[in-house]
Amino acid sequence: MSGGSAIRGVSRDIYGERRPIEGVVVALIHITFTDRGLTLIGSMSRALKRGEIHELMITDEEAKPGSRVDRVSVIAFFEVETGGLAVYGDEVLIDGRHIGHIAGFDLTHMPNHMNIVVKAESLKPPPIKLGDKVRIAAHPEPKCLR
């Protein structure tokens, strides 16, 4: 499945106000890879629709759309309750705790689910439990872009 590519000259600045995406953790995953070989798609954004289930993984690598990511911890699957547009650099919170910022998207498992790769401080999984609320929200100047 093609994930689109980056459009020359397009930056994160084109995105205006967006409502937060909200969801709930439906499954926990406990695995870390040091050689996963994910290729993030070139596109900076993806629409997340209500009812979809997607995978959250964290990385400590300096990743961005179009880059390769090897070091990841897979932490959870979540169901989207309020859909919206997720953009590179958006803040990801679980149960109100900052997890990191979106580094990019991987479509390896589509159409089943999308991998949402989050830049975190480390590969150590944050405390998460079934039913925790997930929130993806626009951030004016995320740390990963400074």
Overview of the molecule:
The structure is a single chain. By secondary structure, the chain is mainly β. The protein has one domain. It is 0% helix and 46% strand. It contains no helices and eleven strands. The strands form three sheets. The protein has a seven-stranded mixed β-barrel. A two-stranded antiparallel sheet has the order 2-5. The radius of gyration is 14 Å and the shape is globular.
Distance between the termini: 32 Å
Oligomer: single chain
Report the order of strands and helices.
EEEEEEEEEEE
Strand-residue proportion: over 45%
| Radius of gyration, taken over Cα atoms and rounded to an integer in Å | 14 Å
**Which regions contain 5 or more consecutive residues with pLDDT less than 50?**
none
Architecture blueprint of SSEs:
Elements lengths: L20 E13 L4 E2 L5 E4 L4 E7 L8 E2 L2 E11 L1 E4 L3 E4 L2 E10 L8 E5 L13 E5 L9
